[in-house]
Amino acid sequence: MRQHAVYRIQLKDRIGLPQTIERLSPEGYFLQPMISPKGGSVVFWGKEEAATGFNIWRTDLDNPMPVRLTDMQAVCGHPFWSSEANHIVFFSTSGVSGETEWRMADQFNLHRPPRNIWIMARNGKCRVRLTDGPHVDERPCISPDGKCVVFVSDRSGNMNLWSVSTDTGRLTQVTKHDGLDYRPIFSPDGRHLAFFTTNNPQGIHDLCVMAWPDGELRLPVRPGSFKWIHGPFWLADGKSLLIHGVTAQEENCALWVLDVDDGSVQRIELPGIPAYGHGTIDAIESQLVFDSQHVL
Known about the structure:
The protein is mainly beta. It has strands spanning 5-12, 15-16, 22-23, 28-35, 41-48, 55-60, 63-68, 76-81, 87-92, 116-121, 128-129, 137-142, 148-153, 160-165, 171-173, 181-186, 192-197, 206-211, 217-218, 226-234, 240-247, 254-259, 265-268, 277-281, 287-292. The strands form 6 sheets. Strands 1, 2, 3, 24 and 25 form a 5-stranded antiparallel β-sheet that branches. It has a 4-stranded antiparallel β-sheet with strand order 4-5-6-7, with no helix packed on it. A 4-stranded antiparallel β-sheet has the order 8-9-10-11, with no helix packed on it. It is globular, with a radius of gyration of 18 Å. The two termini are 16 Å apart.
């Protein structure tokens, strides 16, 4: 199995300090970490080398020993913290398909085994299924007030965004594009939703920002500057997004801070690491967590 790992690194002026890098995940294939809003813990997902199924893991940064939160003999992935860091939303194939393997090459394939959205306490207990049925529901995020979870689903025939009320279970379709909408995330004040999309003339993976719940759509990244963009992750100022992608001039994936208003980008420099992605950053921009195929 190819190695893939999750790391933490300290930042100064948005540059990683090489002597501070620390691996947070066990040996195996682990990816897509999210640092908690309070900065004390990181969740990620993946599998150990000999394990069956993909699981959600948590590492507490003051005692960085990874703890497995799920053991559902399924694929459990895309963990996302609530604003108070007391709950985690995620997807799982448990109870809806027998899938126990996940392949990055198939992640946007409409014709995959179904999976649903779940929520659990930060210790992995008190799991509750939020969606059901034979649908591909994944990539959830929870609103800052905790009242709804926005996720990706094939319920419309395309991979669009939907929301589910955490109180009533009521489902609402959020986007209705012909292509792909993926990886939603609320701004800290809950007034905007960012995601990446193919809803553009070129059909590339581009960044979109939408006024929540049904306002104007913007594509803030300057056309032609990136071959593709994934992420995103709002920074604490509510005006900037951390994205990862490949620029028009480069081949390796890297992390960038995007100013949503003027479209300017600043690279997060991680010396000695040629390719990295799926980054999240704490509120004071002192710590970055990310994943990389470049295993240190």
